[in-house]
Design a protein that fits this description.
Blueprint: H1 13-31, H2 33-71, H3 76-90, H4 94-117, H5 132-157, H6 161-169, H7 174-204, H8 216-227, H9 230-264
Helix pairs in contact: 1-2, 2-3, 2-5, 2-8, 2-9, 3-5, 4-5, 5-7, 6-7, 7-9, 8-9
Amino acid sequence: MRKTPSSEHDFPYWLLTLIGVGIYLFWHVLSDNLYSQVLATLSKGIWTTVMVTVVAFGMAATLGLLLAVAGGSRFLLVRQAARLYVEVVRGIPIIVLLLYVAFALAPALVELWNFLTGYLGFDRVRSRDFSLLWRAVIALTIAYSAFLAEVFRAGLASVDPGQVEAAEALGLSKWQIFRLVVFPQGFRVILPPLGNDFVAMVKDSSLVSVLGVTDITQLGKVTAAGNFRYFETYNVVALVYLTMTITLSLALRRLEKRMRLGQDR
């Protein structure tokens, strides 16, 4: 039977091509005054993009894990509540959720806070005090928590039930079984899609620009509107995002390979 070729063992000509093109583009950017000015402006938004991505993904992963655990609860109400959350959030486009959180949910939370703390003598909080940056982080957290909940659920379900039964026979508590048996083994299955979602969030973080958050995309829009050089400006925007996502993808692929090798030993 003929063996199907595997892309894992192919020489990465695509990577060499990207590196070559990337070096040429960066050289062109650094040697051209206009490109250099655009890159200097966009670099101010890189920190915002990184902060939004890291904070929102960390919160989404935590909430997603809790939802996955709740989905496997022995209590029907908890299971159904977790499933309701996941299905509703997954059915809403991220851009719509972003706008809803920013302009509907955030003001409602401010009013609720003022109502609850009004009797305690606290000063009223104005809606404008709730920064758009954190509204965007909360929206991305809600959106991605539903997707990550399914990732965690599938990973935890992949663990052999016999190992759980063996751990119970040894007298381990449910928390010990989860921490020492289920999660370490499930994490090997969870890591690849988790890494893919992290890279996807880097790209989806550009959506926060619709709220005026000064990330890479927003600064690119402002710069292009000021110099009317849309081609050059968005070339640099695309190059910055491409550099970030490819670097992350390669790092995650290397981590997965090391974990696979460690498992085989």
